[in-house]
Automatic annotation (TrEMBL):
Keyword ATP-binding: yes
Protein's cellular compartments: Cytoplasm
GO cellular component term, pick one: plasma membrane
Chief location category: cytoplasm
Coiled-coil stretches noted in the UniProt entry, renumbered to this chain: none
Keywords: ATP-binding, Cytoplasm, Kinase, Nucleotide-binding, Transferase
Record's signal peptide: none
Pfam families (alphabetical): PIP5K
Chain ranges of the PIPK domain: 25-395
SMART domains named in the record: PIPKc (SM00330)
A Gene Ontology biological process term: phosphatidylinositol phosphate biosynthetic process
Organism, as annotated: Panthera leo
Molecular function GO labels: 1-phosphatidylinositol-4-phosphate 5-kinase activity; ATP binding
Record protein name field: Phosphatidylinositol-4-phosphate 5-kinase type 1 beta
Length: 502
């Protein structure tokens, strides 16, 4: 799981506890990361820009950093280590694609100490976040790093076609070697900014088998809940306007198809929910506690990669929202079923799990004991379809248009229909009066005219002079062409009127 799931828990009260990873202290890992990245990115600036070639994805550069220093590297108080950089030119292209300049990348990672996050998952990985809240650094297993290397050409092609994506944005893959131990790390975008408090955080896979937060997880100050918790807490889902909903679902569908083509499964949607309808006092307290973030907002305009940009891209309305109101931090506006105004932060995480033999065996074993369709491990095509169906029907929903709008159109059409029929009927009535006047000039008696008029009033083929309330109601409730009906019968009515008068 992405470390951003534990925003707010960033080493709060746990900085004194020195963690170890592969028998290496976390402080030594953080120091080696900053020294290694500082050297490799600085060395990369001297290389000219050019197009990325196929062989660039398989290049591995290595540098040895002894503790006493060398002609190329500075001295340090950590054990001697070797630092490897995978596909440096390809990752430089990825960073440029998202507007990350080399100086900014170095400043974010190397200027201040990295902040260690408490581990939210069972993977045993270490997570660090940069002090300016921009990047997540995660230790990965050998198979995950190897899979990412194989994924790079396809990842490159996908980013070229669709830079608007909720997939993880990889900015670098490195390896630290010390004392015969390899520690591989990957640098990614931070999905959940720490400067924005997440009132709810969910890790959603679209499955229901054991998808509930454990008791130990619930005891944390910022727990990460799961699918069954979401269905219980947000049973009505989260609502978006039509344009945002369509953009979000289109992005999710495209990303899932990409992951399916790479035979990737068991990924999650990390969803952070910030409730805007909270007191101003709480916001002021949060702002006063985040002094580094206040400094950061003055240095940089917006985050390099935000949720709003991931579904709308650069130059879209999302940029205008961020510029006009920087407090949103690039969150996606939404509403709860209670009408609360929300900001959502999200991203697809844990994509370095391919459907290999061990995963197939794991699914087969679980399918024998439980319902195979409910477990998280499944073949990529089924996993993608189930994931999308869950997001589309249970998590994200479109705000329905007001029900008054169709009836308003109907009322307008009925009014037009009534007006047309009234004009036709009034014209017929006027013609009838004119004919009646002509007949009077010919010397016919009033009594005979009254009798004829009375007789015609009981004729079904004659249109009355004024429509009754019942007829007006029938015009308003039926979709019949009353005007055509009247037009078709008008000549017949006038013929009958002439014959009667004669």
């Amino acid at each position: 799981m992405s470390s951003a799931a534990e925003n707010g828990d960033a080493a709060s009260g746990k900085q004194n506890e020195e963690k170890t990873y592969k028998k290496t202290a976390s402080s030594a890992i953080k120091g080696a990361i900053q020294l290694g990245i500082g050297y490799t990115v600085g060395n990369l600036t001297s290389k000219p820009d050019r197009d990325v070639l196929m062989q660039d994805f398989y290049v591995v550069e290595s540098v040895f950093l002894p503790s006493e220093g060398s002609n190329l590297t500075p001295a340090h108080h950590y054990p001697d280590f070797r630092f490897k950089t995978y596909a440096p030119l390809a990752f430089r292209y990825f960073r440029e694609l998202f507007g990350i300049k080399p100086d900014d990348y170095l400043y974010s990672i190397c200027s201040e100490p990295l902040i260690e996050l408490s581990n939210p998952g069972a993977s045993g990985s270490l997570f660090f976040v940069t002090s300016d809240d921009e990047f997540i650094i995660k230790t990965v297993q050998h198979k995950e790093a190897e899979f990412l290397q194989k994924l790079l050409p396809g990842y490159y092609m996908n980013l070229n076609q669709n830079p608007r994506t909720l997939l993880p944005k990889f900015y670098g893959l490195y390896c630290m070697q010390s004392g015969g131990i390899n520690i591989r790390i990957v640098v990614m975008n931070n999905v959940l900014p720490r400067s924005m408090r997440m009132h709810f955080t969910y890790d959603l896979k679209g499955s229901t088998y054991k998808r509930r937060a454990s008791r130990k997880e619930r005891e944390k100050s910022n727990p990460t809940f799961k699918d069954l918790d979401f269905l219980q807490d947000m049973h009505e889902g989260l609502y978006f306007d039509t344009e945002t909903y369509n953009a979000l679902m289109k992005t999710l569908q495209r990303d899932c198809r990409v992951l399916e083509s790479f035979k990737i499964m068991d990924y999650s949607l990390l969803l952070g929910i910030h409730i805007l309808d909270h007191s101003l006092k709480e916001k002021e307290e949060e702002n006063s506690q985040n002094v580094p973030d206040a400094k950061r907002s003055g240095m940089q305009k917006v985050l390099y990669s935000t949720a709003m940009e991931s579904i709308q891209g650069p130059g879209k309305p999302g940029d205008g929202i961020i510029t006009e109101n920087p407090d949103t931090m690039g969150g996606i506006p939404a509403k709860s079923h209670k009408g609360e105004k929300l900001l959502l932060f999200m991203g697809i995480i844990d994509i370095l799990q391919s459907y290999r033999l061990m995963k197939k065996l794991e699914h087969s074993w679980k399918a024998l004991v439980y319902d195979g369709d409910t477990v998280s491990v499944h073949r990529p095509s089924f996993y993608a379809d189930r994931f999308l169906k869950f997001m589309n029907s249970r998590v994200f929903k479109k705000i329905q248009a007001l029900k008054a709008s169709p009836s308003k159109k109907r009322c307008n059409s009925i009014a037009a229909l009534k007006a047309t029929s009234q004009e036709i009927v009034s014209s017929i009535s006027q013609e009838w009066k004119d004919e009646k006047r002509d007949l009077l000039t010919e010397g016919q008696s009033f009594s005979s005219l009254d009798e004829e008029a009375l007789g015609s009033r009981h004729r079904p083929d004659l249109v009355p002079s004024t429509p009754s309330l019942f007829e007006a109601a029938s015009l308003a409730t039926t979709i019949s062409s009353s005007s055509l009906y009247v037009n078709e019968h008008c000549p017949h009515d006038r013929t009958m009127l002439y014959s009667n008068s004669k």
